[in-house]
Sequence to fold (401 residues):
Amino acid sequence: MWYIILSLLAALYLLMNLVLQSFMGGSAGTYVIQPILWISLAIVVFLIAKQEGLNIWSFKKIRRWKIGRTPFEAALLVGGFQVSLTVIAGLLVGFGKSPYSHTISSILINIVFVFSMLFGLEVSRAYLIKKGTAARRNITLTLGLVTLLFVIISIAPGDFVVLNFSNPAEAVKFLGETLIPLLAMGLFASYLAYLGGALPAIGYIGVIRTFEWFSPFLPNLDWALAALIGTIGPAIGFLMIQNSIQLTHGRHPRRVIRKNIRDPALSWTGVAIISLLLVFFSFGYLGVQPTVIYSGSMSPSLEVGDMVIISETTTSEIKIGDIIQFQNTNNSIPTVHRVKEINTEKNTKIFITKGDANQKQDATPVYPEQIMGKQIGVIPKVGWIPIIIKEFIRQIIIVIK
Fold:
């Protein structure tokens, strides 16, 4: 009866984000009704699992653990490790006061709110994974789909609007700060649920949420560093658990050589890490930044859909003939044109630019503070992918509105 659980999750998501927010906002809707709904969901899932003879709470698919004695202990250790990374980063950048109240009554209310949601979500996750992985060929698909489902449930509908990329900086921040870490942590929680049931997933997420909600002081991390920790933590957790090399097979367990076990969840985490690095790359955190060519002003050197790799540079390194990216004075989309002249005005270098396909030079000179970098490479036609995606999202938003 997995479809009943999916229907309940969808109903709760809509109820909490649309109905309760619109008609019962405030403390009553958030701290009273929501916990009741999550606990009710957990009870329903347990009853359905019991009726179907499924153990979704705690089991041990792996016989021997090198990190902890049980999946639950391993989950606690990985969660603690991820919190430790956050604290170490805080020692470097500093701490600030938590946004949550820490009076006795507030702590009790927050405990009910946080852990009721945690139990409702993770029990449901464990049930769906248990049902979906009954056939071993469906493990990869099940872990991926269940993770994606619970990531969506964790994000309010209004937060997805930023993905229309009308504000690229906010869109990239949302991807790096929220979406990709949620995917990485969700994949690891799904993997724990696959190996040991709901209890290990609750242990891992619970340690992290306990620190976030109940520590009176939290590190002042910028979004990029927080995103990196949120992705590296579960990735290292996967590597730790891979050291457990004995799996249970029926009544007579046998030793299985680790290198022969294909673990799809580890591959998914690799995808999450690569995605995070791409976000850093796209936003310029690695010193270079890709830029998609949207016009034909630089044809034939650069065509529409080409992706230009822009590197940070100083004005002294720019020479005539270089292709540079600069911000226009009207704050429109940055321009990528070729430097035709370099002049001096009041002891300041100014750059005269021109598109290769244009007959005239650009009307206004480019000043040093406008320069974003110069071209160091180009990848032909790859830029059509974000162009098509951006147009697709724009059309969806138009239909929704």
